[in-house]
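User: Watch each token:
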Amino acid sequence: MGITIQNVTGSTALVIWPQMAGCADSFYSVMYHASWNSVLSSYSRQSFQKEERVPTSRSWLLVENLAPLTTYVLCVTCQSANPSREQCRTFHTLRQDAAGTGGARKELALGIWLASSALLLVIAAVLLYGCLLALCRRRRERRAAEQRGARTWGPAPHEGGAPGAPRPGAGGSDASGIPLATIIESPRGCQEPVARNAECQEPGPTTGQSSAMD
């Protein structure tokens, strides 16, 4: 008959069979039974534990809920009758943990990868935030140092009044350009007692007295 069994796992198997042109019924009967490592002695319908009906428009069936590490006998007929040997096949299921362990390992690896990625993202965000804070702090310190240096090295104010004002006793000119007299103070001056003030004064003219005597 050409029955093919593919994709066998610990609990499932895909059964494919060719279309039967002479099938008068509207369904196919798929019967299977666990033989426990032994072939069934008879192929009567009562000997099979499971029987499923498939519409004739379809020629495949996914058999589920199988026991792992078990030998099964499966038959396909186009009518509700006892199958012949040519309409049956034998297959063995795999270990259940073979697929289950692989899926669990994949899920565990995926979970570890996601957790590691999230942790790396958090660490990168913290480091970036710290770098930004350090950069801002350095910029503020640099600006403060520049401002202190500008105040320290600024122009010093002029002594003795407003800038550009002439100092007392010094020669120069006023705003109109007229030269100003230079005042020189004597360090000692005529600071003698009153009795000697006459010496500091020069004698006056004596023209009148000479005329009277004459």
User: Anything to note?
Assistant: The two ends are 187 Å apart (CA to CA). The domain at 4-38+45-93 is CATH 2.60.40.10 (Immunoglobulin-like). The beta strands are 4-6, 13-16, 27-34, 50-55, 60-63, 71-77, 88-92, 172-173, 179-180. DSSP finds three helices and nine strands in the chain.
